[in-house]
Design brief:
mainly alpha; Growth Hormone, Chain: A; globular; 395 residues
């Protein structure tokens, strides 16, 4: 029974940390209330995810040294302090410090625990459990976006939203952390039972680079569109304010796609692991390109927004599960954090470039062309790496 409570606590922690995926609503409020540019708004979002990806390395080390309870508790405390700090400022540097840096550290520490703890309790269902463990990270934004939009549409200040997020979110993470634990018979969840991989060894393996390129390019499209979902919907003429029905629906649908994609792709990876990466990268690129072509048709716009989220959610799950399969037991804590850094790079580069494009051109053509082409470039690159790997093995 303990393992099911661990999974429930994991989902709750991830739901709170995943509120970052409702950032497009917050970003729009920062632009209207504080006067930030689109580039500044997206830079905060990208910095948080970049710091998150780097902090995951620290989180993995803490997890292996001290276990999930202490590591997740630290996440809750840092999260509360960070968003409390954000509620006290009203400038781009302040938000970059408290949300980008502090929020990123809190997310990295907390994210490390549900992944590794869940696989430790359910070692025979790595793909599905990885999907369940990070389901909340996608689903959280569905709940929080509705709350954000509701408060902001009534004139509530964004600082008040940050204060509530810090106190309530940080407190719930801390409480859920007290439920976290590991099975006594699974020491491999704390330290790898096969090989303690070092980064100097990892960079020499084609498999590592396939994971890196796949996650970096596969998540690119989703990160760009998620960061702009509310603003893009408004600018296309669907709605009047960030709290109106259609922008809220767009963020809800991309969040729903993100959450459901984590479960669906985890399930598929347990059954057809040899095909999932190619399907995911190809679908991710195609969804963004079709959004460019058919975005003016309201019904198709919302279907494609959902699909962007669906493929994005899959990319996060697939490369976590395949890292564990490729590098052995314990690699979610020991190897995946190094792979995940490239997710952070995609987040730092993609949304910032997209924000600059929008500030300069005022249209979404360049943004969608960029987010559609990058996953397809990743698909081609992985295919070339696989061919090189086959030839070297044959020789």
């Amino acid at each position: 029974m303990k393992k099911y409570f661990v999974i429930l606590a994991s989902v709750l922690i991830q739901m709170i940390l995943g509120s970052i995926y409702a950032w497009s609503t917050i970003s729009a409020a920062l632009q209207s209330q504080i006067g930030l540019t689109k580039l500044q708004g997206q830079s905060i979002y990208g910095t948080l995810i970049m710091v998150f990806s780097l902090s995951l390395i620290i989180g993995g080390k803490m997890f292996r040294a001290y276990g999930p309870r202490l590591t997740a508790s630290a996440s809750g405390l840092v999260y509360a302090l960070s968003f409390w700090g954000a509620s006290m400022v009203s400038s781009f540097p302040g938000y970059l410090l408290f949300i980008g840096l502090g929020g990123g550290i809190a997310t990295g520490l907390g994210y490390a625990c549900p992944l590794s703890a869940g696989v430790a309790w359910f070692p025979k269902n790595k793909g599905l459990i990885t999907g369940v463990a990070v389901f909340g990270f996608g689903a959280g934004s569905i709940v929080t976006n509705s709350i954000f939009a509701s408060f902001l549409s009534t004139g509530t200040s964004v600082q008040t939203v940050f204060l509530a997020l810090g106190l309530l979110g940080g407190g719930l993470i801390f409480l859920a952390a007290q439920i976290m634990g590991l099975p006594q018979e699974a020491p491999s969840a704390v330290k790898p039972s096969q090989r303690a991989w070092k980064i100097v060894d990892l960079v020499r393996t084609p498999t590592f680079w396939k994971m890196v390129i796949g996650l970096g390019t596969g998540s690119f499209a989703g990160l760009v569109v998620i960061g702009q979902a509310a603003g893009m919907t408004l600018d296309m003429g669907y709605g009047d304010t960030v709290g109106s029905t259609l922008p809220v629906l767009a963020v809800t649908l991309i969040s729903l796609g993100n959450a459901s994609g984590r479960l669906a792709w985890g399930w598929m990876n347990d059954r057809i692991p040899q095909f999932t990466i190619s399907l995911n990268l190809g679908g991710s690129g195609l969804a963004s390109l079709l959004l460019l072509v058919f975005g003016s048709v309201l019904s198709l716009y919302f279907v494609l927004v959902f699909l962007v989220g669906f493929f994005f959610g899959g990319s996060v799950v697939l490369f976590a599960a395949q890292t564990e399969n490729s590098f052995g037991a314990g690699s979610l804590a020991g190897v995946y954090p190094f792979v995940f850094v490239f997710y952070g790079l995609a987040a730092l580069i993609g949304p910032s470039v997209a924000g600059a494009l929008l500030d300069t051109t005022g249209v979404y053509t360049g943004l969608l062309l960029l987010s559609g082409s990058v996953p397809l470039i990743g698909l081609i690159s992985i295919g070339l790496l696989s061919q090189t790997e086959i030839k070297s093995q044959a020789a």
